[in-house]
Design a protein that fits this description.
The complex is a heterodimer of chains A (291) and B (281).
Chain A: H1 13-48, H2 55-58, E1 62-63, E2 68-69, H3 72-103, H4 106-121, H5 124-142, H6 149-173, H7 177-185, H8 190-219, H9 222-227, H10 245-252, H11 258-290
Antiparallel strand pairs in A: 1-2
Helix pairs in contact in A: 1-11, 3-6, 3-8, 4-6, 5-6, 6-8, 7-8, 8-11, 10-11
Chain B: H1 5-34, E1 36-42, H2 47-60, E2 64-70, H3 73-82, E3 87-90, E4 101-116, H4 126-133, E5 151-155, H5 160-169, E6 180-182, H6 185-193, E7 198-203, H7 204-212, E8 217-219, H8 229-233, E9 240-248, H9 253-263, H10 268-273
Parallel strand pairs in B: 1-2, 1-3, 5-6, 5-7
Antiparallel strand pairs in B: 3-9, 4-7, 4-8, 4-9
Classes of the chains: A mainly alpha (291), B alpha/beta (281).
Chain lengths: 291, 281
Amino acid sequence: MIWSRHNTSSPLRADATLARVTGSLAMAVAVLLGLVILLLIRESWGMLVDGGWVRFFDSEGWYPQRGQFDLLPMLWATLAASLGALLIALPLGMMSAVFSRFYAPGWMVSSLRRVMMLLAGIPSVVYGLWGLTVLVPLIAQWEPPGASLLAAILILALMVLPTVALTSEAALAAVSPASLQGAAALGLSRKGIVLGVALPEARAGIMTGALLAALRALGETMAVLMVAGNVVQTPGSVFDSVRVLTANIALEMPYAIGDHRAALFATGLMLMLIVTLLSWLAGRREELAHV
Amino acid sequence: MLLTEADVKNMKLTIKIAATLCITVLTLGSSFADTQKLVLTGSSTVAPLALEIGKRFEQRNPGIRVDVQSGGSTRGVNDARTGLADIGMASRALKPTESDLTSYRIAMDGIGIILHQDNPVQTLSDDQIREIYTGKISNWQAVGGEDRKITVVNKAEGRSTLELFLHHFQLNNPEIRAHVVIGDNQQGIKTVAGSVGAIGYVSIGTAEYEQTHGTPIRLLAMDGVAATVDIVRAGRFPLLRPLNLVIKGAPNALALRFITFAQSQAVDDLVTTQYFVPLAR
């Protein structure tokens, strides 16, 4: 790049005003995030103090009306569903990106991208409805009850696929033409160029896309609530019914009072911690990539 | 430019019209501000019925607005207690710990066991249902059906349907070995309709409606009593629940008027179209 990011020392007053306006708006967003976290802590405080937080990890299951608040099974279910979805969506998304970047004829590239964008724009409740009426009965024929970790993984994979495909494609598009032309000049096959030059150079961007997809999978609520079965248990197989952290909040919040309500806010706090950790990782990757 | 007399007249008229408009808007605005508002919160079972009753109440009493929000019987009781709502809605009788409130029954509802249409099992005893829900029976063969795994559908914690079910079968929630946990009636019906081996329990009114409209589910008889809206109307079904409006202390004039209206014959047709059962009078 020719221009520098830090070149903001313009003497113009308009610039100073714009800097102040945009700066304070950016600060407002940060403050809002802080307020959300503070609210989560305040509402769950009664359950966290005096060693109360231990109950989230050593209770005998999740029976809020009997004072049992074990969050661990839901934590494992959340991580398993997101990881499973990523394992399916990552190779598929990368392959779709490689295809549209290196193999697809011109007219197909734009229509493929449009399909991906449409896929990204479908509301999650529609995915959920489809999952509940089509996917779950299909799995139930194979291994009842059908509503299971597998159903959640498949729905989530479909939902994060566009994120992976679009970011991978952008990362591949950012590979310098010089590298590609150099590789072609050396007589490498197209396969050799893709595997040996393009993908390694785009790796950082693809990984960032994968982390973004993981964030979306972790936060997804409605679709998973409809297909995962929502039984609180540590999944032993992909056919087990599971409840994820987001679904726990959505399912029980309208009816919760007292400690039960505080425990649901604590559920939100735990989710927030995981998401923060992941975005921090994504940020670090990006910094490393730019060094 | 000089103004002619006609111009001046015209201008005066314009000012008059503008002033009238302003006053009309102001009066309308203030009459909206005068609107009395009645807030109802609580049971998601009662809410659709309360909404219909509220609409008719608004028609007959101009200037009154009825605001209905669902969120479960427990919320209805709580909001009535804290004054967040004028009237709470609860799809169960009040508990002993809730004796500071008064309840007014507006309709009855029955809870029925539903199976998939293709499941040949015709009847289940209370003991069999208890054993299915506690996981002691896990195949339909054990109760005279096909060789197929049973999928137990249970409700999420805090729902009044769950409490009524547990109370009737004398079960504790931790004893139940569920395969699917659902939120509302519709999710329960869709889950059972999508799985031949599933068993669940939902409001009979909703289930009967879905059954007659082609959803592949079947309501099961209990203790030899068929689960139909007519039977519930006769008060003969074993698993019944009252739909109540609850308030704290003496109701204010408006709330009392609404409750009297909701208990009157004038809303029987609304109760029936919601697949609940009107009060016996």
